Amino acid sequence: MPLYQIHAAIEQRTEAIREAHPDWPCRKGCDDCCRSLASEPLLSEPEWSLLRPALSGELLQRIAANANAPRPVTCPLLDRETGACLVYAVRPLACRSYGYYAERGKVLGCHRIEAVAAADDSILWGNHTALDRETSAFGPAKPLSEWAMSVIR
Asked: Bridge partners of 77?
């Protein structure tokens, strides 16, 4: 499945969850997960090809600086003043699916999402394992910083 079809499927799932659950926290204005990354997003080569043109030299340096920083870290793609994603239109799959896709029986760790999910067992989560299977066709994924360092060198 091409990347744009996966993006469309994720958008369809996220929109369905937001419509069914007006109190869902993952909306414009929430940047909790972006301010507390436990690990770098992993990107496939097609994702990197989409993201790369949107990255300035400054963003590449911020990505590289986060590579070995103690976790959690603030996403280097976040505008720290406004809380907006600087590359929203081309953000990685990990960012698109976070908060809407889960592994079987396991919410992904946001306390706000966990609270909504605990109060409502009707949530139709996206299948994170299936998403991983679909994206494996793109080849191995690498950490964002590894992609960035390949450009900086």
From this structure: none
Mean pLDDT of 72-90: 95
- The pTM is what? 0.90
Domain boundaries, the chain: 3-152
Q: By the 8 A CB rule, do 46 and 140 touch? A: no
